[in-house]
Recover the amino acids of this structure.
């Protein structure tokens, strides 16, 4: 891209207003980057401010009740915060326009904002990319494999679809990684913005179509990519659509001294290298960390069930009948002891818990991950929750398990045996050629 003169032509009124709004809005969304752009659980001063201001705004202007920000971006708080930011940006735009109405353009400030947005978007996309390349974001658990397709949420179905093909998951991660890496190089940033925008259009459509809980967050990322891509649309249209020579967008240098410009360039590339290396190392260390083993890991099916002293017949259509228990190892890098625990009922539904083991005592406690008072994604808060159930267990044999304890107020005694199902989804492999008999088998399995 060419350098633009230090005194470029004047912008139109609509362009100046749009830039002022975009500047304030993206600053509200991105700041305090490079401090973690998504500071879940970090009660820094800015988060405390939004935790006070956003509920007040929602209560008085949107007539909705909301508490502090949570893990997901689709709660009432996030939508209220989105509206709050839009209102703040509009008010700031009006004040800015009144104070600075003589300004003809914001070329230098525009370049500064593009650098800030590029680096922030690159870091976020990099994190998602690496978690797919390893892969870590999408995993198939035994409990999910036991769940009937018709009982899955759309989000679970999408997660399992991605997890079923490691090749496709890595491919999507590589696409996101390429776009993110190019965003750190000013000359290659337009291509990085184009690749990132294409990837994010697909991500946003999947999130909205499958009701994934980060719709607002992914849409914000798409807006950032489109903002970076906007000045490149006309040159791209000239070349691709109109088939004529395109004039590349000329950059306005932030400063006139060449050595400062080179220093800014080096800092951007250096920051990108640091972001890539640190993300790869931290994700690699997380994946290499020891898995917290569950002493009962596996799938266990009930042979006998006694609830509150009464023997329950093992009827498959009983929605309250405990038919199968699934104990899973704790994930890589998880701080709390234990792992996931799922109860599958006779009607095909399931209930998810976190299990904490006391192996020397032969017991474990379970806490539902759906309890609103137990924010399971925040380690310190989850540890303070009272358990929903406590069980003692014995192992008469390697494939036999006896449980005695309480769950949700019910006294439960169960005798179970271990099962080792061969899931077709896991066992099936890629085939270059498929004959008619195999095609019928694959479709109807």
């Amino acid at each position: 891209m060419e350098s633009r003169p230090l005194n470029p032509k004047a912008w139109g009124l609509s362009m100046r207003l749009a830039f002022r709004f975009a500047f304030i809005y993206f600053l509200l969304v991105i700041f305090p980057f490079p401090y973690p752009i998504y500071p879940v659980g970090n009660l820094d001063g800015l988060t405390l401010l939004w935790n006070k201001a956003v509920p007040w705004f929602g209560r008085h202007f949107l007539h909705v009740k909301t508490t502090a920000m949570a893990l997901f971006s689709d709660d009432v708080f996030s939508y209220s915060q989105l509206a709050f930011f839009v209102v703040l940006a509009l008010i700031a735009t009006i004040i800015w326009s009144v104070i600075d109405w003589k300004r003809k353009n914001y070329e230098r400030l525009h370049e500064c904002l593009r650098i800030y947005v590029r680096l922030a978007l690159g870091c976020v996309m990099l994190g998602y990319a690496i978690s797919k390349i390893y892969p870590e974001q999408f995993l198939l658990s035994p409990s999910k494999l036991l769940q009937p397709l018709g009982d899955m949420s759309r989000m679970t179905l999408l997660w399992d679809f991605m997890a079923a093909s490691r090749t496709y998951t890595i491919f999507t991660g590589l696409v996101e990684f390429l776009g993110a890496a190019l965003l750190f190089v000013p000359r290659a940033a337009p291509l990085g913005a184009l690749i990132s925008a294409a990837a994010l259009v697909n991500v946003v459509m999947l999130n909205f179509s499958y009701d994934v809980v980060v719709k607002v967050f992914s849409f914000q990322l798409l807006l950032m990519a489109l903002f970076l891509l906007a000045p490149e649309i006309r040159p791209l249209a000239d070349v691709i659509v109109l088939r004529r020579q395109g004039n590349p967008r000329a950059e306005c240098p932030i400063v006139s001294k060449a050595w400062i410009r080179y220093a800014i360039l080096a800092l951007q590339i250096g920051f990108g290298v640091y972001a890539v290396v640190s993300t790869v190392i931290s994700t690699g260390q997380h994946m290499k960390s020891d898995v917290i083993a569950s002493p009962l890991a596996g799938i266990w099916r009930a042979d006998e069930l006694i609830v509150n002293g009464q023997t329950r017949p093992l009827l498959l259509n009983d929605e309250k009948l405990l038919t199968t228990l699934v104990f899973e190892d704790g994930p890589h890098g998880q701080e709390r002891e234990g792992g996931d625990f799922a109860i599958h009922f006779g009607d095909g539904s399931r209930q998810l818990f976190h299990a904490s083991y006391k192996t020397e005592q032969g017991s474990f406690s379970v806490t539902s991950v759906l309890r609103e008072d137990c924010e399971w994604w925040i380690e310190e808060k989850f540890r303070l929750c009272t358990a929903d159930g406590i069980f003692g267990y014995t192992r008469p044999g390697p494939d036999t398990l006896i449980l005695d304890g309480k769950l949700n107020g019910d006294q439960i005694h169960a005798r179970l045996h271990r099962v080792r199902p061969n899931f077709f989804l896991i066992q099936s492999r890629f085939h270059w050629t498929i004959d008619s008999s195999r095609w019928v088998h694959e479709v109807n399995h």
Summary: The chain has two domains: 13-287, 298-426.
